[in-house]
Description:
By secondary structure, this protein is mainly α.
Amino acid sequence: xxxxxxxxxxxxxxxxxxxxxxxxxxxxxxxxxxxxxxxxxxxxxxxxxxxxxxxxxxxxxxxxxxxxxxxxxxxxxxxxxxxxxxxxxxxxxxxxxxxxxxxxxxxxxxxxxxxxxxxxxxxxxxxxxxxxxxxxxxxxxxxxxxxxxxxxxxxxxxxxxxxxxxxxxxxxxxxxxxxxxxxxxxxxxxxxxxxxxxxxxxxxxxxxxxxxxxxxxxxxxxxxxxxxxxxxxxxxxxxxxxxxxx
Length: 246
């Protein structure tokens, strides 16, 4: 069961507007600093990724702190963070990624096949392109930090911690489930990953509902991203490994 509290309309609207501002200000600030030609280089693209990540994740966490203060509650009360039932939370988180990861991969393959059947070539996510173009250990470490820790925490707070309960508490449970799940997938701006990310989002909602602790979807999301991250980083090694298996 979700934590018993109701997100008020005005602070909610201010929070959403603030997140939208954070989404745009990083790119605008970087565009003002770098010349247009720099964005065609690997260094420029990675700098844009860094600036966007810092502004979005840092800005969102600050907005969440303000949002919770306006409601007169803390992070534990707002999102159900608690040590009680931690083993069950961890177990469900592991079960969630065991279910979500193979299903997401299957849905992505299905999406790619469907796109190719209508002569549309699936494109790799921009964030994946950025990872594949990383050249130094420092870049990969930063990318791992964002993908495995930063993004799961921030995205789960926004989508499952705030938007989902806000809609459900106003008597729209189906819109809460489908709306936030579809919106979560849509924000990743990639057709081939739309179905798998929608499915992942629904699993994350289920975990939050079952545990009442946002830590459960955060952990599943983090493990999901970690599996994809290491699969991309060690793609050639994995292909070579499976090639030599009997």
